[in-house]
Design a protein that fits this description.
- α1 (about 20-25) packs across α6.
- The chain is globular and about 70 Å long.
- It contains 20 helices and 17 strands.
- The protein has a 7-stranded mixed beta sheet, with helices on both faces. It has a 6-stranded parallel beta sheet with strand order 8-11-12-13-14-16. Strands 9-10 form a two-stranded antiparallel sheet.
- By secondary structure, the chain is of the alpha/beta class.
């Protein structure tokens, strides 16, 4: 029996993480009935030609969409596909449709269905409905346009245990091409979904209702062993929002990796309160299993601001994690955010102080600083909108939204100029540098120590001769 094709598309973006969402939804489909084809706008040299070559046998076209610039390519491709095959159902999933389930359909007539939250079971049921030409009314976790053009939002799904979806099929993509684009043999993997926490600047509480589920240690490590034998990767980038949610699970995973003698490094995200509940021996076990880098969000150097953000962590916990990682030799990224509504100058001063202290603790510590930009689905954004802040209103307007490289109205020009200079010099001050940069490093340390960033000749030279990658 000839298999029917399911086309999945990953829009153009500047990073090269593997399309885990598409792999996940493609892996739950019956391989005897359906041939899943993933086209990646970042990898394929001519994605539309590839899409066209498979359209005749396709029964649906799905995309995963992040809020921001990836929407532009998603809309362009969606409209082109609908023009080529107007009866082909087009499904959008991902963060943007979880935040704007109905609005996305209202704004773009070429989209037929949007999926909210965890998408594996929803997409499986959608494909069965398309294949058998049945009603979508029974498919939970979706929003769709019915035959009369009316937009219907079905009841949400409850989060399903990750073990049910643990057998992800990486053969759906050309893994070697991603290794090539990344410049290293790094496998992307997600072992948990959701987050228990309530941070007011984050959309996770809205999307997952503060629920969390994870792949069990035995299943996860067996899968990583299988993938390691097949792809010979040297590093695993764990894409979990909060990998260290349960200490016992993390330690069991690390011990199983050690027992199996799996030779790869790994990186993950940790909350400081989670790290503070682990012992130094726990950190050592993780390091022995290959832990090379942690991402520990700090957000602010002010405890008052941290409490306002509902981070539910203490600065003491951040420093405790930093000291343990320093002593063991684990690299850490400590992201900060400045420019929150009504943020005080004192809070800004404390953030500068803490960022500098953490950065100087170890050459492999980094303290990237971002500017707050209201992101949909967050408590802070809801509040500033009530106070008159205007968000983009359509899916097309959201395609111009940049929450990485832009600022909100609470960042003055003077504050922006200060932080752009501070970030530049902080980058060079304490990290390992080539001999040619040592004079710059000494100057950077002096400038950071005395907060003197006037006449930044060094920055202008570097900005002139070294191209800076733009993120979106």
């Amino acid at each position: 029996m000839k298999r029917k094709k399911i086309l999945l598309y990953n829009p153009i973006a500047v990073f090269f993480d593997m399309p885990l969402a598409l792999i996940a939804v493609g892996s739950v489909l019956d391989p005897e009935k359906y041939e899943v084809i993933i086209i990646d706008g970042r990898i394929d040299e001519n994605p539309m030609e590839t899409i066209k070559s498979h359209l005749d046998d396709a029964i649906c076209f799905g995309l995963t969409v992040l809020t921001g610039k990836p929407i532009k390519d998603a809309v362009t491709v969606t409209q082109a596909v609908k023009k080529l095959k107007k009866d082909l159902p087009i499904v959008w999933g991902g963060w943007h449709t979880s935040l704007f389930p109905k609005q996305t359909l209202i704004d773009e007539i070429s989209i037929d269905v949007t999926v909210q939250g965890q998408g594996e079971d929803a997409f499986k049921e959608l494909v069965d409905a398309f294949d058998n030409n049945t009603d979508l009314a029974a498919v939970k976790g979706i929003c769709y346009r019915n035959a009369e053009g009316e937009i219907i939002k079905n009841p949400p799904r409850t989060i399903v245990k990750m073990d049910a979806f643990a057998n992800v099929n990486y053969e759906l993509i050309d893994v070697e091409k991603y290794f090539e684009k990344k410049g290293r043999r790094q496998l992307d993997y997600i072992s948990s979904t959701g987050c228990f926490f309530r941070c007011s600047f984050c959309a996770d509480p809205f999307v997952y209702n503060r629920k969390w589920t994870a792949v069990s240690p035995e299943i996860m490590v067996d899968k990583l062993e299988e993938l390691h034998k097949k792809y010979k990767f040297t590093d695993v980038n764990l894409q979990d929002e909060t990998y260290f949610t349960y200490r016992d699970r993390v330690i069991e995973i690390s011990e199983r990796i050690i027992e199996k003698g799996l030779n790869f490094t790994w990186a993950a995200t940790m909350r400081a309160d989670q790290g503070s509940r682990m012992t130094i021996e726990d950190f050592k076990i993780c390091a022995k299993s290959g832990l090379r880098r942690l991402l520990i969000g700090v957000e602010s150097g002010s405890q008052v601001m941290m409490d306002w953000l509902k981070k539910d962590i203490k600065l003491e916990q951040v420093y405790m994690c930093a000291e343990r990682c320093r002593d063991i030799g684990i690299a850490v990224q400590f992201p900060f955010i400045v420019g929150f509504p009504e943020e005080s100058d004192e809070s800004i001063t404390e953030t500068v102080k803490v960022a500098l202290e953490l950065n100087s603790m170890h050459p492999n510590f980094r303290t990237p600083i971002f500017y707050f930009k209201p992101y949909p689905g967050t408590t802070i954004t809801d509040n500033v909108v009530k106070q008159g802040y205007k968000l983009p209103e359509t899916v097309h307007e959201w395609s111009d939204f940049d929450f990485v490289g832009s600022t909100g109205p609470w960042v003055s020009k003077e504050k922006y100029d200060f932080f752009e200079k501070f970030k530049f010099y902080l980058k060079f001050a304490y990290s390992k540098q080539k001999v040619i940069y040592l004079p710059l490093q000494l100057l950077a340390r002096l400038r950071c120590k005395y907060k003197f960033f006037n006449f930044p000749v060094e920055k202008k030279l570097v900005d002139t001769f070294f191209k800076k990658q733009q993120l979106a």
